[in-house]
Amino acid sequence: MFYKGKEYSMFNYVPKLIKISGGTVAFIDNLNRLQVFQNGVSKIISYEIVTAFEVNGNVVSYTLGDNNEKIYWNGTTY
């Protein structure tokens, strides 16, 4: 992956699902965690099982279990 001309090696596996919008990449890793890559930094945003997620610009919305909706924006989960 490239960000501002610098190459980032993200993982040594194929993610289960990847979604991209603008400069945000969100993906389910090999341990079923939801991760995000933004501004050159990769961060796990959920250790719980995510049933669905969407990326819209720099916002990641995701669902845990039955209708437990979360929003990740600007480094914070709401």
What would you say this structure looks like, in words?
Helices cover 0% and strands 59% of the residues. The chain has 78 residues and is mostly beta strands. A hairpin with a 2-residue loop joins strand 3 and strand 4. The protein is globular and about 40 Å long. The relative contact order is 0.19.
- Tell me how many strands there are: 10
Shape: globular
Radius of gyration, in angstroms, nearest whole number: 12 Å
Order of helical and strand elements? EEEEEEEEEE
The helix-and-strand class reads: mainly beta
Instruction: Give the helix level as a range of percent.
Output: under 10%
Report the β-strand fraction as a percent range.
Answer: over 45%
Give the uncertain stretches in residue-range form.
none
Spatial order of strands in the largest sheet: 3-4-5-6
SSE order and pairing:
Layout: E1 2-3, E2 6-7, E3 17-21, E4 24-28, E5 34-38, E6 41-46, E7 50-56, E8 59-64, E9 68-73, E10 76-77
Antiparallel strand pairs: 1-2, 3-4, 4-5, 5-6, 7-8, 8-9, 9-10
Which terms would index this structure?
10 strands; 59% strand; four-stranded antiparallel beta sheet; 78 residues; mainly beta
Concise overview:
The protein is an all-beta fold and 78 residues long. It is built from no helices and 10 strands. The strands form 3 sheets. A 4-stranded antiparallel beta sheet has the order 3-4-5-6, with no helix packed on it.
